[in-house]
Amino acid sequence: GLSLLLHTLDDHLSDKEIPLNHTMLIYRTALWNDLLHHIDSLKKILNISTDILDKYIDRYSHGTSMHDDATSLGEYFHSFQLTMKMVCIAPHLILHANNLHKEDIKNILDSLYSFGLAWRIVDDIEDLKDDIENKKLTAPYFLLSKNIQATWINNNDSIALTEEILNTNVPKELQDYILVLSTFAINIANEYNLYDLAEEYSCFIKEV
Hints:
Elements: H1 2-14, H2 22-46, H3 52-66, H4 73-83, H5 89-97, H6 102-126, H7 128-133, H8 139-142, H9 146-153, H10 158-166, H11 170-191, H12 195-207
Helix pairs in contact: 1-2, 2-5, 3-4, 6-11, 11-12
């Protein structure tokens, strides 16, 4: 829960949707300290010693910093998957403690990353109008023609542009991404007998 909260908070801070002030910095620091404390406690409970945390924090920070510099859909997806590292720390530690092979751990975590990316695309579609108003470049932007991309950056009428984009093939292309990513996540979860997780993924697809 803390990792998801931090992920969302940092996303809004980087987008300037939440003002970065002294109070917010104190709050963010407190959340980080709390998260690190819980992760340390989990490591003791599982009786494991690993440097996974440092690697994940480095990748998370890199993903957060490169998010606004993405120049293609692939770069945009990659930056988000790096920030997903924070959400996957606890699952990785638990899988590591169960002595699974590295390939199995990677496969299960890949299912989490795929689902997270599908969720992000859904969020981008739902926030289309707000993102245009804030000139925030998200998944739909990278599938648009150069002319419409320029309008996104220089727009004065977010409602008209939102309607124009919804009438292109972009929503269908994004829906295809969501289906492929979610299906991959479901298949991996089922392969490893994580049936409850697979059901959660399936419910997500039905609601989209």
